[in-house]
Write a structure and sequence with these properties.
The protein is mostly helical. It contains 4 helices and no strands. α2 (11-36) packs antiparallel against α3.
């Protein structure tokens, strides 16, 4: 899904989403599961799964709600404007 989001030209959105999933979900959940709930090593895997699941669901929503025709037209415009430059 990350490649599809980047293909839309939404690199900034994809990067922000990845930062949030890792630093806003994975690390705090891992800390909570390991140190406060006493789940141990399995808590790290649960937290990793939670962060990745959130990121996958958000990117899926972005891809399915995107205007792909507009994205293709924008890509054509960018390509046409860069053809004259070395």
């Amino acid at each position: 899904m990350q490649g599809a989001v980047y293909a839309l030209g939404a690199q900034d959105l994809g990067s922000k989403l990845m930062l949030f999933a890792n630093y806003g979900v994975f690390i705090p959940f891992a800390y909570m599961f390991v140190f406060h709930l006493g789940v141990g090593f399995q808590g790290i895997w649960i937290a990793c799964f939670s962060g990745q699941t959130l990121m996958a669901l958000a990117m899926t929503m972005i891809v399915y709600t995107a205007d792909w025709q507009k994205a293709a037209d924008d890509a054509k415009d960018r390509l046409a404007s860069s053809e004259g430059t070395p």
